[in-house]
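Table S2 (continued). Query chain:
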Amino acid sequence: MNTNTKPHLKDYRWTKGKPSPNPSGRPKSLKNVLRDEYQITPSQTNEILSNIMMHTKKEITDIQGDDTQPMIIRIVCKALIKSYNNGSLYALESLLNRTHGMPKQQTTIDTNQENPIFVSLDLK
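Corresponding output:
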């Protein structure tokens, strides 16, 4: 980054030799937490998400409030309930895209043109 582009941030830059402003480092991604701490593979994650989406609202609410359930399942249930209560399908759409893939999208390109395009190349 060019140091002249943001002079108002000069006082906040980290200086070499001083303690790190982020000693813990970058937070782990959810995928890595599931793999490392819970030994859950991506296919198992997809299966869990698919199973959760087959429950009724009451069942999902009960699962979300059950302290014996793994945190990831409770978080997913909470997101589904919140999305449902807000009248939004965002959480459901995100989970479906994650478990079953994005829907196939089709695009049509019409290349018919009334006036042809001529390209010339002059090699000298």
